[in-house]
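ok so for the tutorial part 2 we go from a plain amino acid sequence to predicted structure tokens. step 1 is just haveing the sequence, like this:
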Amino acid sequence: MSAISKPTAFLAALLSWHAAISSFSDAFTPHNNLPATTLAQNRLTFPSYLYAPLAGRYPAATASNRDLAVIRATTNEESEGKYNDDDGSIDINSDPRLCRVRLPRAPGIEWGTDLSFSFVYVRELEPAGAASLSAAVEKGDQICELRAVIGDGEEGEPINLIGAPFDQVMNAFASLGRDVKDVDLVFFRGTKEELKEACAGGSEPVPQTITITVVQNKGSKDEKMSHIEAKAGCNVREVLTDNGINVYQSVTRWTNCKGKQLCGTCIVNVADGTINTNRKSIDESSTLRENPENYRLSCVTFAYGDITVETFPPIEAAQWTR
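step 2 — the prediction. this is what the tokens look like for a chain of 322 residues:
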């Protein structure tokens, strides 16, 4: 073998070995083909594993007969009588651009949003995913409603997601029970502006104000409850302090960081409506790691729907001196 052919043969063998290793790794690596967060055409996109914490247990559908039996688009005629205004679900007969489709909880959709981080839409469809195989969902469709399918086709409560923040939509998927395998999703075929116009034309409008119910001194004789109207997307700490409600225990009422997420002392318990708040960051989760999941730092908590918060919740010793 010549001196030139030896390196060539070695390079070919090396490339072949690398391809074999890559194929083996891909076969055992979940979400290996999911794109990272990108910024393209002023639109932020997010990988689907963010909303499917149990994706390993409920993988996206493939083109098998079993999966195709699950995937079906519900037409307007099929949904008549099944869903109505009484249960709070969206009437897809009110606009021809609305469509309801039943899909596995991991539908094979890459969700996206513009820089407002609201009005979540279908950014991409996984080629072998359930949504793509259903032929009922297209890129650009706006998600409007999620409803869990429980047990033998029984439906849970509808969750209206029109104009909802990205975190709220992802929390709606992440909060599904472990026994939920399928979901009914309502999509709007059109742009964000067209969806807004459709809402203004008679459908339920996107809420602009919310109610924060505040429970102070819970369990004591001085327990007090108040209701505060605020703008959707408001910061919980700002709303409470602006209304004269103290969120700080001990001397930190005077020595706190003024909402800069440095002291970790503005702890509240979101007793109801956690799905209407933004998701915890890694830093916030670490600060509150010894406390219940509903405990939040009010300075970094934003409310997009009605919530109930309790001030001065019992906290562990690690937080007391913060």
